[in-house]
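Hey, can you fold this one?
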Amino acid sequence: MNKRSLSVLSIAVLLAVTLSGCDQSVQDPNTMFSEQHKDPIKELEITSNIDRSQFKYKQTFYVPIYSDIYTDRDNRKVLLSATLSVRNTTLKKPLFINKIDYYDTAGNLVKHYLKSTIELPPMATLNYIVEKEEDKGGSGANFIIEVEGLDDTVTPVIEAVMIGNFSNKAFSFSTQGTPVIHD
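Sure. Predicted structure:
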């Protein structure tokens, strides 16, 4: 093989390795850590029409997320990873989630997580990870989550757990979802 062919081959191999490392499904912790190694939101998406005429419960929740906090020493910013947890607390009724939207500290929409409604089976939990490296949300980030169900017995438990470390110390804390009052 001549030098030119070897150089072209080397560049092609390097590009292939680099591009294969960019596969989001391989890097996404929500896919990596799920039991079937599939996106948990996509797995719960409903593909058929829903008869909402029977739904008597609908609520929107505000869930604070801290994608970073400041330490008291030198006012350093510490990045945090967060896990959003939506839990269906009923034994026999599904919970329908219509919206999971992520907002930053200034109130700007960062990301819509749902393309369509998802159905959370009885006693099931949807956990979704916001990685530490995702710092677009800031210290005042939040989720807005809209849910529906047959009646108010399907009231979910919605929480977020943040974890991080600074120097040789690790810490964690949690927040609760709060119902949003619509005027």
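The chain is about 15% helix and 40% strand. Let me know if you want another pass with a different chain boundary.
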